[in-house]
Specification:
Elements: E1 2-8, H1 13-28, E2 34-40, H2 44-58, E3 62-68, E4 70-73, E5 76-79, E6 83-90, E7 94-101, H3 103-110, H4 113-120, E8 126-133, H5 140-150, E9 156-160, E10 172-174, E11 177-179, E12 183-190, E13 193-199, E14 202-204, E15 209-215, E16 218-222, E17 225-226, H6 227-236, H7 240-248, E18 251-255, E19 268-276, E20 283-285, E21 294-300, H8 302-317, E22 324-330, H9 343-351, E23 357-362, E24 365-369, E25 372-376, E26 380-386
Parallel strand pairs: 2-3, 8-9, 22-23
Antiparallel strand pairs: 1-6, 2-6, 3-10, 4-5, 4-23, 7-12, 8-12, 9-24, 10-11, 13-26, 14-21, 15-16, 15-21, 16-17, 16-20, 18-19, 18-21, 19-20, 22-26, 24-25
Helix pairs in contact: 1-2, 3-5, 4-5, 8-9
Length: 391
């Protein structure tokens, strides 16, 4: 298994193409089995042409990617500017099965687990799934739940295209197709393993609470007391700095696996507190909740996000060295959160110098928490790829 990556911020079309393709060809010396391309800062016609040119020049067995508002490659994050990032690899012993769903096809597949399993499976059972989707036409939360039911314990990573902010403005690539909607992806089987890392960018404040009454996405009571009352009591005990952060945005850390003791950050799904009802004392969050679930409130700041990603990367360094990485980072991170540019890419590169990598700044990141894939925001979702002949 061998990967190569390239990054270009050239605005001249021919130079951009050359800076992307030539380094890959020089390193691999053969057509790759898989190539992933992410393009930012160009209008749809240029994106279409560049995607097709790169595919024609490289001749990969499978080609995947999307348009976005910024790209990631090596130790750089090219935010809101013309750029492109490319990762390609030769993968002996790896099955690569491409798939695409329109909105209607996704809905149909979610209603038919057998059909969905067939759409995701090649000749061998999948060991990893990579996907990119259009945020305006994909029921991604529901689709991820269905994918998990169809292929349990298979890690999923990816992101939502951010090249446009209205329906039809994004572009997704799958082999010879360039489409404005739906979801595209690949399942990987055989001699490969995907090790997911999700840094959710928040840190806890206050104690754990038990949800004692809930409906849909609304927490009604915590410990048999109105949720808003409990949250205000918790806030009264915070430091001035934490209270300021809480006023800027409150996040709920929902425990996924209640049997874990103690709860670690890998057992907690971060969701935003969307609104509160002063009359009833109920608090709404951006996901479904249930009675009996444990919750802890969180705040988001650059220092906490930095510390969490460093800790997760340090843990990954103690494992088997990866062959490549895909980095999907939120458009609310970067210089919108951190005081210096290239934060997430820089930390990944510092942990694994010269590791071939590519990715993009996403409008929603897909990654694993508690053994299941979710759509996140404000996260860095990283997929480390490495050989594994145990299959």
């Amino acid at each position: 298994m061998r990967f190569a990556s390239s990054l270009s911020s050239a605005t001249l079309f021919s130079r951009l193409r050359d800076e992307l393709v030539a380094p890959i060809q020089e390193t691999l010396q053969e057509a790759p089995d898989l190539a992933l391309l992410f393009i930012s800062g160009f209008d749809a016609d240029v994106v279409n042409e560049l995607a097709r040119e790169v595919r024609d020049w490289l001749s990969p067995r499978v080609f995947l990617g999307c348009s976005c508002e910024g790209v990631v490659g090596g130790d750089r994050e090219m935010e809101q500017r013309p750029a492109a990032s490319l990762l390609a690899g030769t993968l002996p012993g790896v099955g690569i099965h491409p798939f695409r769903f329109t909105h209607a096809e996704a809905v149909q597949a979610m209603q038919d687990p057998v059909r969905l399993r067939a759409a995701l499976s090649g000749s061998r059972p999948p060991r990893a799934t990579l996907l990119v989707g259009d945020p305006f036409s994909t029921p991604i939360q529901e689709l991820l739940r269905a994918i998990t039911d169809a292929a349990p314990e298979v890690p999923v990573a990816g992101g939502m295209a951010s090249g446009g902010y209205e329906p039809g403005a994004n572009r997704l690539f799958l082999n010879s197709l360039v489409v404005p909607d739906g979801v595209v992806g690949v399942t990987l089987s055989g001699n490969i393993r995907l090790v997911p890392l999700v840094s959710q960018g928040c840190r806890p404040v206050g104690p754990h609470y038990l949800i004692t009454s809930a409906a849909g996405n609304v927490i009604e009571t915590l410990g048999d007391r109105p949720a808003l009352e409990v949250m205000r009591e918790m806030a009264s005990g915070l430091s001035p700095d934490d209270l300021r952060l809480l006023q800027e945005g409150v996040f709920a850390g929902l425990v996924i696996e209640e049997s874990a003791d103690p709860f670690g950050r890998g057992d907690v799904l971060i969701r935003q507190v969307a609104q509160a009802d002063a009359e009833s004392g109920a608090v709404a969050v951006s996901d479904m909740v249930r009675a009996g679930q444990t919750v802890q409130f969180h705040v988001r700041d650059a220092a906490g996000a930095d510390a969490e990603l460093r800790r997760l990367l340090a843990r990954q360094q103690r494992g088997i060295a990866p062959a490549a990485a895909l980095v999907f980072t939120c458009n609310g991170r970067g210089t919108r959160l951190f005081p210096q540019p290239d934060h997430d890419a820089g930390l990944v590169n510092a942990a694994f110098p010269d590791l071939p990598s590519a990715g993009f700044i996403a409008m929603g990141e897909i990654g694993m928490v508690g053994g299941r894939p979710y759509l996140h925001s404000h996260t860095a979702s990283i997929a480390f790829l490495l050989p594994d002949d145990s299959a």
